[in-house]
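Sample intake sheet
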Amino acid sequence: MKNMKPSHIKYKFTYIKVTVLTLFCCTLFLKGYTPFEKTGENYFHVSVNGEDVGILGDARRAEELLTQARKSIAMESDELIFMDSDLQMEREEVLWGKVDKESDILERMTAALQGSVHETMHRSYTLKVNEYMVNLSSVEEVQELLQAAIDQYDGEDKFRVELLYAPDREFSVLTARVEDSSIAEKDSAELYLEGGVQPVLSNMGTKKVLPEAEKDFDDYDLGILDMGFAEKVEIVEAYLPESQLTPVSEAIDQVTSKQETPGVYEVVQGDTLSEIAIKVDIPIDRIIEMNDSLEDENSTLQIGQKLVITVPEPELSVVRVEENYYEETYDADVVYIENDNWYTNQTVVHQQPSAGFRKVVADVSYLNDEEVSREILKEEIVMEAVAKVVERGTKTPPTYIKPISGGRQSSGFGRRSAPTRGASTYHKGIDWATPTGTPVYASCGGKVSRAGWGSGYGYVVYIDHEDGRQTRYGHLSKILVKVGDTVKQGEKIALSGNTGVTTGPHLHFEILINGTQVNPLKYLQ
């Protein structure tokens, strides 16, 4: 082997040093490489939601880029977006290594996040009416729904719904107001022509109020005067998933359609079940079904009695006042003559009524389709009505109670097969089977008119009452009163027995009106 010259060795050593120095500079200054420093982990393989998005040399930059990617997705929509953002980094310490451009990593992070969006919360509006709530996607849909409720009754297309902030609420809650658009436009125009609101305010209280001349029928502005909502309406902004939003057409149907709502009707004087059914627009059999106190359509009603009824009403009710002109036949108010010596169930008609005819302008108030009140503004009588004149009693009539405690009803009122020889086939009272010696009480206070033996009745007691009725108590074992005695309701008058024509010990009880037996069960309290 030839010996190298000293100069050649010197040049070779210089070449090696230059090469090493160049490589070292590259590691320091060449873009995309991480210089080696003895600082621990300095090389990061980044993934988002399990997807590899690139390599970085700084862990903090990975978190900052992820935040930037989330913001960029959120800014693309006005809604609230929920997404998974699981950031994972594999860490190592390297002498040098290539890292990715941050713009590329940001783009891949954004794509990984968009693929993990699992729910979007939409800006929406919750409309609340009493206990009813519905969620709509925009304030325009809220206004459309409320306008639809008004439009059902506004055939003139005159009224508009306005949304405004509720002044009595601490938070941003909207409420609704119904306004006559034609009046609002007119007021605005007048203010403009007069130079603003100041002239109007300055003239308030200075104008003389002239007496209003009597109007003719043609002078009235007929039609709807005022409209509004019967319930308090509240609208609150919220963020909700699309699954909880209701299409506006469906919401309109829910709010405006009549739903069955439980209600109560209080019986007034003169009411019958058939008349009540007409008033509340519910079939008689349905009213009987809802009320355990009613047996059939002939059930006795008491003034003040409360009946459960189901009234069809919408979720959102509309009130309005209409000024109407109409011509009608009418009845004069009944004229009553009070008689303090008669009972309230005693009446005599002294004059029959005759209908009259009139022309009328009236303000009529409605709740939905139902008339609530009527105020007559102008009336012209074409033909006078003749009033009905009725004399009626003022005294409360006596009441009747069951004359024994307990007992089993063994025979009802009316036709029957004769239970034994000599018994009637048409039973004129009520029988209660009860042991001999059971106390018998006066069903109503009165005067004893008979007390002794009666053919077929056995031992019997008759009591005459103030209202002209009579009660009879038969088949007794012992009588405790005598003719002419005055007894009170509930006073013991006899003991039950098995005398007369019977098939066993029992009490026979009758109520007579004008001398004729009636079914006692219709009169017992």
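Comment: Residues 43-115 form one domain. The first strand starts at residue 43 and ends at 48.
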